[in-house]
Amino acid sequence: MKDTVTELLSSALATLQSEGTLPAEQTFSPQVGNTKDKSHGDYACNIALVAAKAAGCPPRQLAEALVERLPQSRAVDKVEIAGPGFINFFMSTASAFSVVETILEQAGEYGRNQNGKGESVQVEFVSANPTGPLHVGHGRGAAIGDCLCRLLEASGYNVTREFYYNDAGAQINNLALSVQARVKGLTPDDSNWPADGYRGDYIVDVAKAYLAGDTVTADDREVTAKADADDLDAIREFAVAYLRREQDLDLKAFGVEFDVYFLESSLYQEGKVEATVERLTANGYTYEQDGALWLRTTEFGDDKDRVMRKKDGGYTYFLPDVAYHLDKWQRGFTTVINEQGADHHSTVTRVRAGLQALKSDIPQGWPDYVLHQMVMVTRSGQEVKISKRAGSYVTLRDLIDEVGRDATRFFLAARRVDSQLTFDIDLARSQTNENPVYYIQYAHARICSVLRKLAAEGVERGWNQCQGDLSRLTLDEEKELANQLARYPELIANSAATREPHHLTHYLRELAGQFHTYYNAHKALVEDVELRDARLSLYLAIRQVIANGLELLGVSAPEEM
Fold first, then answer.
1. On the chain, which terminus has fewer CB atoms closer than 10 Å, C or N?
2. Rounded CA gap, 521 and 509, in Å?
3. What is Dmax (Cα atoms) for the chain?
4. CB–CB of 92/39 below 8 Å?
5. Which has more confidence, 473 or 1?
6. How far apart are CA 117 and CA 56, in angstroms?
7. Residue 391, pLDDT above cutoff 80
8. What's the pLDDT score for residue 96?
9. Count of other CB atoms within 10 angstroms of residue 529
């Protein structure tokens, strides 16, 4: 319906341009929004305020001229001018409920669009070091990243999901030393335990598997343990493969899968890190100082230059990141979105500076970043900090085991990414209206229950079958529900464009709330067959939109609860 209003206003603007009231060479794009107060209509537009200067008249006078030139439409009941020149549209009952037929006809496709026109987009997310179980921060990245991918796919983009393994460097060496210590019978309490060793019980599991000669299969390799306590390279290879497999199993339990697993080690093996250094040096953006090799990142907006290669010959973490992103660009991804924790904030400027210094025609501001804030887990009002298996943090698997996949995914995606999130285990486990995922799923299950009751009475109703005279839907609550359903496609498009999945969780919570209020106040299974069928058609449209929205969140839509 918003498109209908936009078209009517565009026609009126074109008429005023042809009459000379507005300049013909200027483009005017009316922005139509939903009203917050329904006494002001269903939709409102401020184009008269925006275009008044070009018209050389007061905004309200221009608004009056626009209203006079609006084409006749059965979709609009009346139009009013408010305040200094806002144009408010009150939609007709017939037009409001046409969305019900549209939803039931399009079913699972309702809300999808082709804004992306098939453009290839790569989304990198989670990208945890293979040194231990995934923690709740990784879980938040997984929920946000996967939901964002689903939203982009629903908006017509060709999405590639990528996981980057930092399987090189000091942390991997600490992992190998920790497993080796366990293999040799040491514990974290022993004086010979590695200074930066990992202490969680999962290290014991890796050590036992290594000594048993187990074979593990990661994404791209199969590794059989040598069971040799002195072969640190063999321990390192086995431990990385073991933990990569464990992380993959956790992600599959979370309903998240990837198209590409990219190893940092491959950048070194294929000479891409060295090639990046040579190119940066050839372009004149590096210099030697204090035995280290520096990159002049200040020439690209950084607050100070950064070390690329340390005195000991090792590279700082951002240099392989530059090589990795050059590889992404060379693979043809003109749009890349990195979903990472907020602790990567300082990386953004450095990576972008390094990419500009390569002079590879990479646009400024590439790639895009979505950075999420930390997660605090609470139980009975107290913060939960430690998992026995991980040793020092709450794992993603802990949450899934405690509250289930649906609640974990919903809660971790439910806030703005730049807001800190408190994950209340008690709330996530509760079956009350205060638990948003339960409340939304219950709305879907309630509608399914009504259909079962109808079937028990001998009346079969298809789940996407529109019946009854929709003009019988005359209640304000019914029209508000229809208007809410009509908002869904725009919400999907905007959430994808702004990379903000949390809007979908808020929308579904609001829709479920409207439905529950309506359900409790007005029966659907009434003796008046026409009214019954009309209300059931509205029910079915609500059920479909809830199912569509939950699918984009990776959350199930149960038929019974």
1. C
2. 19
3. 90
4. no
5. 473
6. 39
7. no
8. 84
9. 11
| Residue-averaged pLDDT of the chain | 94
- CA dist 259 and 122 (Å) reads 10
pLDDT at residue 386 is higher than 70: no
Mutual angle of helices 318-330 and 272-282, in 10-degree steps:
90
Strand 421-424, strand 375-379: pairing: parallel
- The two three-digit tokens of residue 132, written as one number: 């231990």
Residue 11 has pLDDT above 80, yes or no: yes
- Do 260 and 161 touch, CB atoms closer than 8 A? yes
The amino acid present at 177, given as its one-letter code, is L
Retrieve residue 384's tokens.
């939960």
Tokens of 159: 């999405």
Q: Are 367 and 499 contacting, i.e. CB atoms less than 8 angstroms apart?
A: no
378/402 Cα distance (integer angstroms): 12
For residues 155 and 541, what is the distance between their CA atoms, to the nearest angstrom? 21
Residue 287 DSSP code: E
Measured CA distances, 51 to 28, 48, 86 (Å)? 7, 5, 12
As a whole number of angstroms, the distance between CA 445 and CA 543 comes to 9
Cα–Cα distance for residue pair 503/499, rounded to 1 Å: 10
Q: List CB contacts of 168: < 8 A, sequence separation 6 or more.
A: 264, 265, 268, 320
Are the C-beta atoms of 172 and 205 separated by less than 8 Å? no
The answer to whether 74 and 33 have CB atoms below 8 angstroms apart is: no
- Phi, psi values for residue 258, rounded to 5°: -120, 150
Half-sphere exposure of 324 (CA within 13 A, CB side): 22
- 78-104 residues labelled b (16+ CB within 10 A) or e (exposed): ebebeeebbbbbbbbeebbbbbbeebb
Query: pLDDT, tens digit, for every residue of 168-191?
Result: 888 999 999 999 999 999 999 999
Q: Identify the three-state secondary structure at position 380.
A: coil
Which residue type does 190 have?
D
Least confident of 104-113, 321-330, 376-385: 376-385
* pLDDT score of 4: 86
Taking residues 200-215, report their average pLDDT: 96
Give the 3-state secondary structure of residue 37. coil
Q: Looking at residue 392, what is its pLDDT?
A: 72
Q: What does the alpha-carbon distance between residue 536 and residue 358 come to, in Å, rounded to a whole number?
A: 61
Q: Report yes or no: 201 and 250 within 8 Å, Cβ to Cβ.
A: no
**Measured CA angle at 274 (ends 289, 242), to 5 deg:** 115
Question: What are the φ/ψ torsions at residue 4 (nearest 5 degrees)?
Answer: -60, -45
With beta carbons less than 8 A apart as the criterion, state whether 250 and 397 touch: yes
Strand pairing partners for 158?
Answer: 120
Q: From CA 182, how far away is CA 200, in angstroms rounded?
A: 11
